[in-house]
Design a protein that fits this description.
339 residues; Hypothetical Oxidoreductase Yiak, Chain: A, domain 1; Ribosomal Protein S8, Chain: A, domain 1; Wheat Germ Agglutinin (Isolectin 2), domain 1; 7-stranded mixed beta sheet; 3-stranded antiparallel beta sheet; 19% strand; binds NADPH dihydro-nicotinamide-adenine-dinucleotide phosphate
């Protein structure tokens, strides 16, 4: 569930200033300037669009992983084109976003040659939302999807006696004629780990079916679910099987770690997870009908007319427009960052 913007201070900060503040913090923790810049853009974009769970709130986690030497902020990704459509990236223990950026020329070549780019990242840490990775592809007219073996074992499918999946997010972006791209991006668990922590901190209960306690019994207590229990996949066996697919593609296929492999590797206090990510980008021109964005626009118009008025991206684009006009609300996390 997306968090509400906390405009407690009534203050605003410009996007550019926030990027600089995050970048400087990450550089002090050991990231190379270009890596710090890429992560700062990602982080500030999340904050600007109201994806606060992956905005400035995450800076401490990046810093902890960088300063412990768990993630390499100076890694040089190795990019290989191993077929007309297949791009392999060894992130060399760096972050996924700079690794994806390093592969952009090979992705463009694959799209040109075959209409499809499969991008397999391994030995990469992904600690953010997926939409910032995907939206630029859709802005360039392509369809894009992404999935992550996200690392922390937290999800117990029905029948299992312990967590075997992470919250395994999946994202999808498509161009829409005459409109911003439609982009959705969510974890495949009934509730994200962050939202469960927030509910526990507030002393709230969670809806039936959210998770189990350490004895495998259904629980509405988020603290029990977090402490030795587990979160359920969303949609019962359907969510579990999506997680299975994501682990097999983002880890099994890429050669990155499965979520079950990473938990024991990270040193105490390191927040990010070195796993794998799979991206698939498609040039819709190759579909042959020449009017893909118009067809999607017509479909979305029909959905809105039918009463499905809330489309993915609507909330983010509204927040972005407001932030561009007024600045980004200064939350407690931003206040701590800028001093
Ligand atoms: P949500 O359940 O909040 O779903 C978010 C998505 O659904 C957004 O695309 C949102 O659009 C869209 N949406 C929300 N409500 C509606 C609605 N009523 N109708 C249509 N679309 C709607 O996501 P989660 O809490 O599961 O995940 C939050 C974030 O956490 C994601 O960005 C995910 O990638 C990230 N994550 C990252 C991990 C990692 O390892 N890097 C691990 C797990 C999660 P809009 O943007 O407009 O609100």
């Amino acid at each position: 569930m997306a968090q509400e913007i906390n405009d407690a201070h009534g203050e605003r900060i410009s996007f550019e200033r926030l990027v600089i503040a995050v970048k400087e913090t990450l550089q002090r923790a050991g990231a190379a300037p270009e890596v710090a810049h890429t992560l700062a853009l990602n982080c500030a974009s999340c904050e600007r669009d109201g994806t606060l769970s992956h905005g400035v709130f995450r800076v401490k986690g990046y810093v902890d992983s960088l300063s412990r030497g768990w993630a390499d902020g100076r890694a040089q990704p190795r990019v290989e084109s191993v077929g007309a459509s297949f791009v392999r990236v060894d992130g060399a223990n760096g972050f996924a976003q700079p690794a994806l950026e390093a592969a952009q020329p090979q992705i463009a070549d694959a799209l040109e040659a075959s209409g499809v780019a499969v991008i397999a990242l391994r030995a990469t840490h992904h600690f953010s939302a997926l939409w910032p990775d995907l939206e630029p592809f859709a802005r360039r007219g392509n369809i894009a999807m992404a999935m992550i073996a996200s690392g922390k074992l937290a999800v117990v499918p029905e029948g299992a006696t312990r967590p075997v999946f992470s919250t395994n997010p999946f994202g999808y972006a498509t161009p829409v004629a005459g409109h911003e791209p439609a982009v959705f991006d969510f974890s495949t668990s009934s509730m994200s780990h962050g939202d469960l922590q927030l509910a526990a901190a507030r002393g709230e209960t969670v809806p039936p079916g959210t998770g189990v306690d350490g004895f495998g019994q259904e629980s509405d207590d988020p603290a029990e679910i977090l402490d030795g229990g587990g979160i359920r996949p969303f949609g019962g066996h359907k969510g579990a099987l999506l997680s299975f697919m994501i682990e097999t593609l983002a880890a099994g296929l890429t050669g990155g770690s499965f979520s079950f492999e990473v938990d024991t590797e990270a040193p105490e206090g390191a927040h990010t997870f070195r796993t794998g990510q799979l991206y698939i980008v498609i040039d819709p021109e190759w579909g042959g009908n020449g009017v893909y964005p118009e067809r999607v626009r017509g479909f979305i118009d029909l959905l809105r007319e039918s009463g499905m008025t809330r489309m993915p991206g609507d909330r983010r684009y509204a927040n972005r427009a407001e932030a561009e006009a007024l600045g980004i609300p200064v939350t407690d996390h931003i206040r701590q960052l800028i001093g």
